[in-house]
Amino acid sequence: MTIPFILASASPARRKLLQTMGIDPIVRHSNFDESQIQLTDTIALVQTLAQCKAEVVANEVNEGLILGCDSLLEVDTQSYGKPESPEEAIIRWQKMRGNSGVLYTGHALIDKTQNKQLLRCGITQVYFADVSDAEIKAYVASGEPLKCAGCFALEGKGGLFVEKLEGCHSNVIGLSLPLLREMLNELGYTVMDFWQ
Q1: Closest CA to 56 of 29, 27, 38, 36
Q2: What residues form the catalytic site here?
Q3: CA of 124: how far to CAs of 10, 65, 85, 89, 140, in Å?
Q4: 76 has catalytic annotation
Q5: Which of 5, 58, 168, 174 is the most buried (most CB within 10 A)?
Q6: What is the pLDDT of residue 2?
Q7: pLDDT at 149
Q8: For the chain, what is the radius of gyration of the CA atoms?
Q9: What pLDDT, on the 0 to 100 scale, is given for residue 33?
Q10: CA-closest candidate to residue 78, choices 102, 106, 53
Q11: Which of 24, 41, 70, 193 is catalytic?
């Protein structure tokens, strides 16, 4: 029997990461209102948001593994999701350039068959290049940073402005593949169980 693998996210980057590792997930966007959750601890916040997204979708299906994720970038003790405007993105990039931040991705994996749930957080240190005002304006004008937690896409144009990472590369894109493998193993599965 094949167990459905359901991604509780509309993120094309997360879907692509799963497909790269051989899993072609069923995509179900949770439409969860993130403003309902007000926590100051970044790890608790991303894990709670990931859990809420996964639970919304889990309540809509009868079987399968449901993966919810949420990412935030913390720079100088301030947590950032997606910027709300180009102006906000420019201000953020002015703070980020030549600086470093920590990208947190909460992972919630619900196994409907076993009635089990796991919560984890991937943590990656990101070092940003000292980019010019012109580079910031051009990058923001591309529209890419407005779609991403932390205001950059490592797998896109934003990768040009990241000097180095300490930790999991895929975590910065929105899903830690090594962490997911560990979570699957903890539930008694292997990644190969979900290969297409």
Answers
A1: 29
A2: 70 (proton acceptor)
A3: 22, 25, 25, 21, 23
A4: no
A5: 174
A6: 82
A7: 87
A8: 17
A9: 83
A10: 102
A11: 70
Three-class SS of residue 43?
helix
Range list of β-strands (E), the chain:
5-7, 26-27, 65-75, 78-80, 100-111, 116-128, 162-166
Q: For position 71, what pLDDT does the model report?
A: 95
CA distance linking residue 118 with residue 164, whole number of Å: 30
In this predicted structure, what is the pLDDT of residue 45? Answer: 95
Collapsing DSSP to helix, strand or coil, 192 comes out as helix
Q: Residue 47 corresponds to which tokens in the numbers above?
A: 């894990």
In the prediction, which pLDDT does 104 show? Answer: 97
- Beta carbons of 149 and 72 less than 8 angstroms apart: yes
> Which residue stretches of the chain have pLDDT < 70?
1
Q: How far apart are CA 119 and CA 18, in angstroms?
A: 18
Which amino acid, one-letter code, is at 108? A
